[in-house]
Amino acid sequence: MDAILLQILNGLDKGSAYALIALGLTLIFGTLGVVNFAHGALFMIGAFCAVTLQRILTLSTITIDETQKDFLGNPLKVKTPYVESWFGPETGAAIIDWSVPLAILFAIPVMLLIGYVMERGLIKHFYKRPHADQILVTFGLAIVLQEIIKAFYGANPIPTGAPAAFRGSFDFGSMFGFDPNTIIYPYWRMVYFAFAAVIIGGVFAFLRYTTFGMVVRAGMADRETVELLGINIDRRFTIMFGVAAAVAGLAGVMYAPINSPNYHMGMDFLVLSFVVVVVGGMGSLPGAVLAGFLLGILEAFASMNEIKAIFPGIDQIIIYLVAIIIILTRPRGLMGRPGVMEE
């Protein structure tokens, strides 16, 4: 039972990342009809927003401390971050420590701007082109963004720590009557799951309960009728592209302490996220979220040593096996809409 509970927690952790990326992918496809293979790169850029803010906050001035000497008796050169000079040692250190959560505020305008530029500068020219053309051009864009990140930040992963308050692990075993230290789970992974739940809930609430969201949903269902009512649906869809980019970026920001940002992390999640979208149903937002958590949990259970002893390598292919079964039995996915990708 303790192993089962631990794998469920692992699955919710992985499923949160899958669901957030797949949610953005589905928003773009549902509104614009574009298959965006650059979406994984947006996830990567979000992670590097956290890296960038951390580097900005740790920019330091060098001073000579006469009270400290090196082994030769010379005064030591001391690096003092500017934020500590401006706000005091304690407040400055706290700001640096909380750089990842603060990167959310930094990433939102950055990702909205990137999403707007992508949509207006490139994607809009491919709305009426075949999906194969959309895949090729967005995949090429993803490679370009990946190489830009590699040129500026290097090829090695960059460790990005979580705030000190969320380092360490929580003892789940004691909550459920197990022996102490039986089920230990990192605090930040629980924070990530809670963050994903808030973002997913916020997106659904925005689409369901705001006038803007209702118009967007109407445009997704019948674009021509909405345009006949005098509503500029193109502008709203452009904003939704920015929102989808922001969702992917925020997912990357909060994932930075879990998996050190590197230039190829977007590609690592991209293929899996498209599988999630297909399993959930192309164009279905609830399907994307459901499939994300479902496949995350299945992947976690498939990684158990007991399972791999019986089926070696099953953890590497379980998601694709499930996708094949779903597509064969339900071609539209778990919650797909009729007519989507069926022409």
Tell me about this structure.
The protein has 343 residues and is mostly helical. The protein has helices spanning 2-32, 39-57, 82-87, 89-97, 99-121, 131-153, 172-175, 187-209, 211-221, 223-228, 233-255, 265-280, 285-302, 305-310, 314-329; strands spanning 60-69, 75-81, 169-171, 184-186. It has one domain (2-57, 100-329): ABC transporter involved in vitamin B12 uptake, BtuC (Orthogonal Bundle). It contains 15 helices and 4 strands. The strands form 2 sheets. Strands 1-2 form a two-stranded antiparallel sheet. The longest helix is centred in the N-terminal third of the chain and has 31 residues, at 2-32. The radius of gyration is 23 Å and the shape is globular.
